[in-house]
Amino acid sequence: MYNVHPSEKLIQAFRQKPYQGCCPTQAEFLFIGLDANYAPNVEEQKIFSKIIEYHEDAISFWQKYNLHHPFLLDGYKGDGRKYHKEFSKIRLSCKD
Questions:
Q1: Which pLDDT value is given to residue 96?
Q2: How much is the pLDDT for 35?
Q3: Which end of the chain offers a freer environment for a tag, N or C, measured as fewer CB atoms within 10 Å?
Q4: What pLDDT, on a 0 to 100 scale, did the predictor assign at position 31?
Q5: Which residues contact 91 (CB under 8 A, 6 or more apart)?
Q6: Cα separation values, 61 from 2, 3, 5, 41, 47, Å
Q7: Which parts of the chain have pLDDT scores under 50?
Q8: Residue 62: how many CB atoms within 10 A of its CB?
Q9: Helix (H, G, I), strand (E, B) or coil at 80
Q10: What does the domain layout of the chain look like in residue ranges?
């Protein structure tokens, strides 16, 4: 069951851009799936600022870190990492 996430910062990020990645109307590819939910304590993760950076501009995030999602950054060990590691096997790059 889904509930409202306790992180006000994350809620605001999704209100500004209710998607992950680039804007769907500008995307060349759309991936629709059951992405991992953010843990209730995600603000306590040392990469939380990177999560917000990703939501503000996912394309710049990908270009800067060469990763499509912050769950792939060193230091993140929570849920969703395996999902995004599998997704990265598609081998898209930010240059595609």
A1: 53
A2: 61
A3: N
A4: 86
A5: none
A6: 27, 27, 23, 22, 13
A7: none
A8: 19
A9: coil
A10: 41-96
Would you say how long the chain is, in residues?
A: 96
56, two tokens: 């503000």
Residue type, 20: Q
Task: Tell me the residue type at 24.
Answer: P
Q: Are 13 and 55 in contact (CB under 8 A)?
A: yes
3-state SS class at 72 = helix
Q: Give the position of tokens 């939910």.
A: 37
Identity at 9, one-letter amino acid code: K
In terms of Cα–Cα distance, which of 86, 35, 79 is closest to 58?
35
- Classify residue 35 by its DSSP letter: P
